Amino acid sequence: MTAQHAIRVRGLEKSYKQLHVLRGVDFDVARGSIFALLGSNGAGKTTAIKIMSTLLKADAGTVAVNGFDVVKHAGKVRESISLTGQFAAVDEILTGRENIVLVAELRHLKDPGKIADDLLARFSLTDAAARRASTYSGGMRRRLDIAMSLVGEPPVIFLDEPTAGLDPQARNEVWQSVKELADRGTTVLLTTQYLDEAEKLADRIAILHEGRIIVNGTLAELGQVLPPAKVEYVEKKPTLDDIFLAIVGRDSNDSAGNERSVGSTSKEN
Ligand SMILES: Nc1ncnc2c1ncn2[C@@H]1O[C@H](COP(=O)(O)OP(=O)(O)OP(=O)(O)O)[C@@H](O)[C@H]1O
Ligand SMILES: [Mg+2]
């Protein structure tokens, strides 16, 4: 385990009965970076997150998080991470502040009230702190959910589709919060189906398709996958949508067996 990697995944495989969901997944996530795992419905994003967060056992392969193997040192991994699931874990009956205090108490931390007030301020929820979460907008609820996952300051956080179902304004609010997290040194692995989300947020983007990472790179590196555009037609840089379709859409028979490596990939050992 090299110290600069917060997450290291090698040869990960997982099947549900006959359904071979992960077929050999490899990638690294650098400390303090934002890594986006992109894929369509059913690609296996949540499955991968569950394995990385010790909730599910892989059939083959290894995962190290914060330097700890997820099987041999599951307890250490759990101390190092938080997981914000695809569906919000906020208690609607409690106020925003009470939700955070509850998590701090469950984690046996000192001064839950102060922890709550600090996090509420960081996520611009101070004014709404005393209101029941049931009165929050989708964006506020998601921010509260992420704030709750930061209680105890885990160095690695997993966000499974953090902005699914949110309107553009709310998505922007969540994006801002996620950026601030990484600025403070937290490693963020997020999954998304939104290409623009990966484009806006992530230092590195990996596309999970038919059980494998078919491309892994920075946005600039992903841009090189496309053939160069003819100068006279170029009005803007290709979007991730263009890149995604160029890789996945055009030639789906070919894509299962051939990983497209871009820039420095996760292949080094
Ligand atoms: N417990 C399970 N038992 C059987 N099949 C499962 C189970 N969990 C997931 N699957 C299947 O595995 C595949 C991958 O599911 P997963 O939830 O990891 O995808 P995902 O990329 O997170 O999709 P989404 O974008 O819809 O959240 C899907 O075909 C799903 O139906
Ligand atoms: Mg999912």
Secondary structure: elements and pairs:
Layout: E1 5-16, E2 19-30, E3 34-38, H1 45-52, E4 60-65, E5 68-69, H2 74-80, E6 81-84, H3 96-106, H4 112-122, H5 138-149, E7 156-160, H6 168-183, E8 187-192, H7 195-201, E9 204-209, E10 212-217, H8 219-223, H9 240-249, H10 252-255
Parallel strand pairs: 3-8, 3-9, 6-7, 7-8
Antiparallel strand pairs: 1-2, 1-4, 4-5, 9-10
Helix pairs in contact: 3-4, 3-5, 5-6
The structure holds adenosine-5'-triphosphate and magnesium ion.
The site of adenosine-5'-triphosphate has 13 residues, from strand 2 and helix 1.
- Over the alpha carbons, how many angstroms does the gyration radius reach? 19 Å
Please mark out the parts with pLDDT under 50 across 5 or more consecutive residues, or reply none: 252-258, 263-269
Question: Any idea of the CATH topology of the domain at 5-87 and 157-255?
Answer: Rossmann fold
Q: Count all strands and give the number.
A: 10
Q: State the CATH superfamily name of the domain at 5-87 and 157-255.
A: P-loop containing nucleotide triphosphate hydrolases
CATH class of the domain at 5-87 and 157-255: Alpha Beta
Which shape, going by the Cα principal axes? globular
Bound molecules: adenosine-5'-triphosphate, magnesium ion
SS class: alpha/beta
CATH architecture classification name of the domain at 5-87 and 157-255: 3-Layer(aba) Sandwich
3D structure, described in words:
With 269 residues, the chain is α/β, with parallel strands linked by helices. The chain has a domain at 5-87 and 157-255: Rossmann fold (3-Layer(aba) Sandwich), CATH 3.40.50.300. Helix content is 34%, strand content 24%. It has 10 helices and 10 strands. The chain has helices spanning 45-52, 74-80, 96-106, 112-122, 138-149, 168-183, 195-201, 219-223, 240-249, 252-255; strands at residues 5-16, 19-30, 34-38, 60-65, 68-69, 81-84, 156-160, 187-192, 204-209, 212-217. The strands form 2 sheets. A 6-stranded mixed sheet has the order 6-7-8-3-9-10, sandwiched between helices. A 4-stranded antiparallel sheet has the order 2-1-4-5, covered by helices on one side. Strand 4 (60-65) and strand 5 form a beta hairpin. The longest helix is centred in the middle third of the chain and has 16 residues, at 168-183. The chain binds adenosine-5'-triphosphate and magnesium ion. Adenosine-5'-triphosphate (ATP) is lined by residues 16, 19, 21, 39, 41-47, 86, 193.
